[in-house]
Design brief:
The chain is globular. The longest helix is centred in the first third of the chain and has 18 residues, at 32-49. The protein has helices at 14-25, 32-49, 60-71, 73-76, 113-120, 126-131, 138-141, 143-155, 162-172. It is an all-alpha fold. Helix content is 51%, strand content 0%.
């Protein structure tokens, strides 16, 4: 944002919000360098070149995700399977690998909870959905992380309380 935008826009926190939202839409095994590229393009093009804060045509985080979907379709649709031998905190995939510098092995993938429900009529334990210990993006499987990020957005006053309340009321009805 400092390279492409005006220097006054760094303190508003919108780049951090874009990074959080992009991270919530990416799979757990996505290499960090790919996530960096999505964030850089999301902020550089999706936010700054398309009008700046409040005037951008596209959501910068989703612009970055759309770029990653087009550029790396296999990486963004590969969900690492949750193994019984690995602890919840262990790293999976090649998250910390430099681009093209690590030995690439095939990943063991698993269906997301929606895929399991639709194609195999199997449910997923609610606790696993709450903490995000299941296949899928953090933004769709970890209710705890969604609540924490929503609290952060409310704390920073980037959130209008009417929108989440209407969504919760709609789901409840």
């Amino acid at each position: 944002e400092r390279l492409l935008g005006n220097r006054g826009s760094l303190g508003d926190g919108s780049a951090a919000i874009t990074g959080i939202l992009l991270g919530l839409t990416l799979p757990a095994g996505m290499p960090m360098w790919m996530a960096f590229m999505g964030g850089a393009l999301g902020i550089g093009f999706g936010k700054l070149l398309f009008g700046g804060l409040g005037y951008n045509v596209f959501n910068p985080a989703l612009f970055g995700r759309a770029f990653l979907q087009a550029a790396f379709p296999v990486a963004i649709t590969t969900w690492p399977a949750v193994g019984r031998r690995l602890s919840w905190w262990s790293l999976r995939g090649d998250n910390l690998a430099l681009p093209f510098m690590s030995a690439h092995t095939d990943a063991i993938t698993a269906a997301t909870p929606l895929g399991l429900m639709k194609f195999e009529t199997k449910g997923t334990a609610l606790f696993n959905l709450f903490i995000g210990n299941t296949g899928g993006s953090l933004g769709e499987t970890s209710a705890l992380l969604i609540l924490l990020c929503g609290g952060y957005l409310a704390w920073r006053q980037f959130l209008n309380w009417r929108i989440p309340l209407s969504i919760f009321a709609t789901v409840a009805v």
